[in-house]
Structures
1.
Amino acid sequence: MIRFWLYLFFVLACLSFWEPVETRRARYKPEPPKPKKTETQKAIDTLAPGQNINIDQMSGKWHLLTVASRCKNLLESGFKTESTSLTWNITADTVTVGTVRKLNFVCWEIKQNYMKTKTPGQLFLKGKRPSDNVDIMVLETDYSTYAMLVFKRAEKITMKLYGRSGEVPDNIVDKFEDRAKTFNLGLDVVFQFPDYGFCESAEKVLDLT
Ligand SMILES: *[C@@H]1O[C@H](CO)[C@@H](O)[C@H](O)[C@H]1NC(C)=O
């Protein structure tokens, strides 16, 4: 049972971005040179949602197709990419997201509230501590086929590709992979999720709203 909770924690930590903070290397340098901004950092600094995104049109059901993420715990905990679906219920100022996926043969629904922000196409997920806050940006969507999202937490980027069905056009997949590369998320950390074997309904609910 402990193993299960540990596993659930790892999956949540990565999928919901409560990543443990990486230990910083304490190395003494007498005169540290001004660090040059890397291309990745520049891409993160200039990150913004796509233009004219209307979040309200994203309501309803999505399939999680692809995730690009460097979450070490995820990789080391024997993580399996189980088919995952999301339901976006949208009100005037929040998006309630229900994520349904299997964990240990049980269908779980994890409910979270993303707050709308003044920026169109941008949402906010409040963490327990300020460093756990997540900015969620919709980079691109046609509302009826695909949506490309970025989750930014403490300068760390995770990208997700949602589809209304199990498939999106190849050019969208290519765009997703190209964009992921700009955040230093190469194909080695791009995970495809199966588009079969979805949970019909949730047996257990984890309500984080
Ligand atoms: C979304 O709304 C439907 C219909 O009101 C409800 O059954 C479902 O539980 C809601 N899902 C979430 C994640 O709030």
2.
Amino acid sequence: MASLGDFSCFSANYKDIGIGDYVERICRVLAEHEWIYNFQLTRFFVEKVWEKLPKEWRKPLLSLSTDDLNHLPTGRVKDDWPTSLKDFVETAASLALPRQQSHDLVAMEINKDLARGMTPKKKHEVSYLASVIRDACRKTSCSTVIDIGSGLGYLGQVLHHQCGVQVVGVEAQASHVHGAQRRIKSQGKDADAQIQTVNLKLEDTSSCIHDLELLINTLQQSPSKDQSQTDVFNRNNDVERENGTCMVGLHCCGDLCPTMLKMFVSVERLKCLVCVSCCYHGMSVTDPGSRPSCFMNFPLSRTVKEKLKKVSTEFPDWQLNVFAMRLAAQETQARWSCQSYEDHLFHTRTVAYRAVLEHVVTTGGKGIQKLKRKVTRKDAFQSFPVYLDAVFGRMTLHSDETVRTEEDWKKYHDALQHSHDQWEEFFPYIEIITALQVLLQPVLETLVTVDRCLYLQEQGLKTEVVPIFDDRISPRNLAIIAER
Ligand SMILES: C[S@@+](CC[C@H](N)C(=O)[O-])C[C@H]1O[C@@H](n2cnc3c(N)ncnc32)[C@H](O)[C@@H]1O
């Protein structure tokens, strides 16, 4: 597998420059092009986002074919583009960590009973992640696994029954803990004899470290109860029964992944970590105005802290905030590249109509605020008149003191139509800016992931990052794998 230590998982272009320069280049590209991601998409017209697009880029980007638009985020450029545009697209694409599922991986075939209730996406994830965890446990002699943020316990069950490891789930939400127990029972299993799920919110506190250590003790002292049972699940008990514990997590959202990394550093008895993150925008914000990052758990590493600081001296207004992290957690270019002309038109309409509404609400005063209630039905975006019906259909006349008469309704209706007509000529910029966002999405995600890996490396822990899922099926596909 590719290893972060020797940079072999990084883009070939940056192999020779060293990690510090690599991180600095990422920061620089993100700082220089902040206008591409640092805004709310519904404020597209309010903020006139296209005006930030360099003038010489506009014509070549507006004349792209669907195929060219689809492949821009892969770094495909055209000869007649201005040099600044070519350089940006090529540089950004070359900075991103590779996302193609590693060829070395072999999916574990999940037993039919255990797969019950899993979506095809979950099945894909669990089949690859369980296989990676089994190999990591073998390598580090771990016979026990703590699944953090275990949700309904799909992963834990497969690890227990098909890999022969003792598993405990840690889950903050009581409803998920009960859901996991119900699931085990529905399979005719006694919940107590199987995988325990502890209702605990993992936090970066000494008392939580203590709880985790107690959990490891209990786990390591209890033999795998399933060993004596009839092998109804065809369990392949092939992990050497040693005494290490591996901490794992599938789609650890927000602060959960950084918290796990800190726990892994602090708790000596955790020998191995396998963690896939998601929802970076869910991380806690310390101070919304803080620059260049407003998050408590980003950056974590010395290297990224230093480089962010250095680049932000040149770009003092640059901020990695919730908009940046939300983009980092979006789909990768794999799905974007398969879109048809009609898909792009539909996406344009969904963004444009909401942005028209936002513009009217922002400029139209108090009475119109209630129109902002979300319209989410897909068929509402067939055309603008259909969208208007959906917006007004959600309101009842006289429901708001300031919207009292038929004339009020007509006034707002006309204001929306007027705003639509005013901005219509700028609708084509929506897909262009979106394509540039899809180009920067993996760069932002790379920065967060590399920061997490470097944090562990700086603590002397061997760490690697591996794309373990097919990103067309599961876009958050980067697993951080570490051992002590
Ligand atoms: C995106 S879900 C993933 C669930 C499961 N691993 C899966 O892939 O099906 C994240 C889970 O982590 C749990 N979670 C979030 N923060 C947590 C924390 N600090 N401690 C424990 N669980 C947490 C949530 O309640 C949620 O069930």
